[in-house]
Amino acid sequence: MTQRTVLFALFDAVQSLDVTGPLEVFAGAEKHKPGTYDIRTASLDGAPVRSSSGLTLAPDQALGDRLDAHTTLVVPGGQGTRTPNPDLVEWLREHGPRAERLVSVCTGAILLAAAGLLDGRRATTHWAYCGKLARDHPGVEVDPDPIYVRDGHVATSAGVTSGIDLALALVEEDLGRDVALGIARHLVVFLRRPGNQAQFSAQLAAQTAQREPFREVQRWITEHPDTDLTVEALAARASLSPRHFARAFQAETGMTPGRYVDRVRLEHARRLLEDTGDGIEEISRSSGYGTPEAMRRAFLKALGAAPAEYRRRFRPAPAR
Question: Most buried pick, 19, 55, 67, 320, via CB within 10 A?
Fold first, then answer.
């Protein structure tokens, strides 16, 4: 079995969890199967860096002139990406393409984009910086929804803990599901989330409406996902015509009523699958899908996994 190098590029004002979270995943895999990964941290000159939280990180080495043919290069995010070090960007531009896998965590995608390594690729970053990434680098296809995105040998992840999910996916790719599952359970994240899972809940994804009729409608949708939530029914609750309601709801919340309802129902069903032993048919009714097949189609479209598979992945195994 070929040993892979996992190299973390460090810089001042890096987000420490962007480094330590994925690093713990690869370290767990190395403990499970010694000789699998050679894990290293490096700054431009090999000197210690101070993270955004004040934690000092002492790298193993300086970023060198060569990358091993089997290197996974991990670029974390943090406040230091707001005004990127031009020398680091230039190093990434020159050496990044040589990596077997190029990975960013959170706003590390901004560094990759600045080095031209995301041009023509689909990518994501922390939801709060997706707009900036898209504006500053129009050649990048920015997807603000998933927790991580794979495009060829380049993988980008969203905010902070999603780097752990991506690292688990890479370990599963290298060593199989059982190893990744063991690491996830040890880290008390149980099972990795699929990359196309949304970064945040429907309530966080949508803006809170300013006007009371629409805030009340949002509350009603969240508390009654199994009721009639058509535009006509919701408009009646707001005492507006369906056409006026649909336009105003989108203006107030940033998404259409239908999309908001879809997200709330998906989130409700996910919570029940994760936290209860309710059957699929019961969950489909209480979440507003009506039938297991309708819920299955919604899960496959949004998460790439059927409800039963989702439960198997993300509900903790019973204690023995």
Answer: 19
